[in-house]
């Protein structure tokens, strides 16, 4: 979800709805063997997964470092046909766009974005965008009847493109000279918003990246930007749960360790408020350097224990809905789904996938949180789809292995599920 991850229903819509637990779907036994005449799995790391509709069926699409794309039938976990070629670079991003999630958009590490359509049952690709900078995020949203794709690039730009026509719609730019490391788009109260995580390359490391929520139409931040530790600066994903736009992100160290800025809704933002005059710089240079070191949260021994923590936040109010402490590693990807009557976040950390309460909805807090342990290598991506009242999860790892599993039937899973080893509040 820059990739947005939405649970896809049978009719192609992205609305999350109540479901009941049912039988476990067949699990993919590691990397698929290639049958005669085609099929098979990836031969290198699976970098992204997305769920959508293809030829009337609910499918997953996976992008890999082997420079191919694959379609998988959600009902069986089996590949649909041959690997799809067309990218010269490693396929790092994939997303189904449109109100029915039936327009597949993919991006590689050479800056090429392709759009895929079915031509009499045969997948065909066409150029969607060719960018000079590396892609750092690919997200989708529907606003005023338009299917939009947001492509974030390392040169600090999030380009919003019409998924159907390919026309430029809008763009968001971070501060000049800054490097963009993560981007996503979503819809808040009917308007298009964007999330960016960027940093000044001149800053010493370790240091904080800057996370900003943008109103795309005005090109201005929704509220004062915040910090995020570099350990989680790759984590920034939107999702709409029961009409509520939420984001999963790393913690804001200034919230706990610094002065921070509390901006009222009516307060005018001044993006230069932290700058100072040249004469002040000459006068207080030494003092400022000392203060900068003191203000850096990385100077705090306590903070170093918190750098991998992450939040789920309400984008409209900035309220922290859930906080997860002491995970075994920093997260870089996540997706959301509904489990029974509750919303959950699925967060890969190393070789396991943590299924955690999203903190949204009337029944939040009653979830038996757990880890899925079906992978033996680091998990790189995860996506979910609803099919016949079941939530099916697809996950891919660094060796090219794929797993397909039912979110709500732990007693029938061929892999053990264990309790979370870290804290949440």
Secondary structure elements and pairings:
Blueprint: E1 46-54, E2 57-64, E3 69-73, E4 78-79, E5 91-97, E6 103-108, E7 112-119, E8 122-130, E9 135-143, E10 146-153, E11 157-162, E12 168-173, E13 179-188, E14 191-199, E15 208-215, E16 220-221, E17 226-229, E18 236-241, E19 244-250, H1 253-257, H2 278-283, H3 285-295, H4 301-304, E20 310-314, E21 320-325, E22 335-339, E23 342-349, E24 352-357, E25 370-372, E26 379-387, E27 390-397, E28 402-406, E29 417-418, E30 423-424
Antiparallel strand pairs: 1-2, 2-3, 3-4, 5-6, 6-7, 7-8, 9-10, 10-11, 11-12, 13-14, 14-15, 15-16, 15-17, 18-19, 19-20, 20-21, 21-30, 22-23, 23-24, 24-25, 25-29, 26-27, 27-28
WD repeats: 39-82, 372-415
Keywords: Repeat, WD repeat
Region (Disordered): 268-297, 404-425
């Amino acid at each position: 979800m820059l990739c947005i991850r939405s649970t896809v229903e049978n009719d192609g819509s992205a609305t999350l709805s109540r479901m009941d637990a049912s039988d476990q779907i067949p699990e993919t036994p590691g990397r698929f063997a290639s049958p005669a005449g085609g099929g098979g799995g990836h031969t290198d790391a699976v970098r992204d997964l997305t769920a959508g509709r293809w030829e009337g069926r609910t499918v997953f699409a996976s992008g890999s470092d082997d420079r191919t794309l694959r379609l998988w039938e959600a009902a069986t976990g089996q590949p649909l046909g041959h690997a799809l070629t067309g990218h010269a670079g490693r396929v790092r991003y994939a997303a189904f766009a449109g109100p029915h999630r039936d327009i597949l958009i993919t991006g590689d590490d050479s800056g090429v974005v392709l759009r895929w359509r079915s031509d009499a049952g045969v997948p065909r690709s066409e150029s969607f965008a060719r960018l000079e900078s590396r892609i750092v995020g690919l997200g989708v949203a529907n606003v005023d009847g338009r299917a939009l794709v947001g492509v974030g690039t390392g040169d600090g730009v999030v380009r919003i493109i019409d998924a159907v026509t390919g026309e430029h719609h809008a763009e968001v730019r971070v501060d000049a000279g800054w490097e963009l490391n993560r981007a996503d788009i979503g819809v808040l109260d009917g308007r298009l918003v964007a999330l960016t995580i960027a940093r000044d390359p001149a800053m010493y490391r370790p240091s904080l990246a800057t996370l900003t929520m943008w109103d795309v139409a005005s090109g201005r931040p929704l509220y004062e930007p915040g910090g995020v530790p570099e350990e989680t600066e790759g984590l920034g994903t939107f999702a709409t749960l029961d009409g509520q736009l939420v984001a999963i992100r790393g913690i804001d160290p200034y919230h706990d360790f610094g002065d921070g800025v509390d901006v009222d809704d009516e307060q005018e933002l001044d993006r230069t408020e932290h700058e100072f005059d040249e004469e002040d710089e000459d006068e207080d240079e030494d003092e400022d350097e000392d203060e900068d070191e003191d203000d850096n949260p990385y100077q705090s021994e306590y903070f170093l224990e918190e750098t991998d923590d992450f939040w789920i936040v309400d984008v409209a109010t900035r309220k922290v809905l859930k906080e997860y402490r002491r995970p075994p590693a920093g997260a870089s990807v996540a997706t959301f789904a509904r489990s029974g009557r509750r919303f959950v976040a699925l967060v890969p950390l190393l070789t396991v996938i943590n299924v955690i309460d999203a903190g949204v909805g009337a029944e939040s807090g009653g979830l038996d949180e757990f880890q899925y342990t079906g992978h033996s290598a680091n998990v790189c991506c995860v996506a979910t789809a609803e099919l016949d009242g079941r939530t099916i999860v697809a996950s891919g790892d660094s060796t090219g292995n794929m797993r397909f599993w039912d979110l709500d039937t732990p007693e029938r899973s061929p892999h053990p599920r264990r309790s979370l080893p870290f804290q949440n509040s």
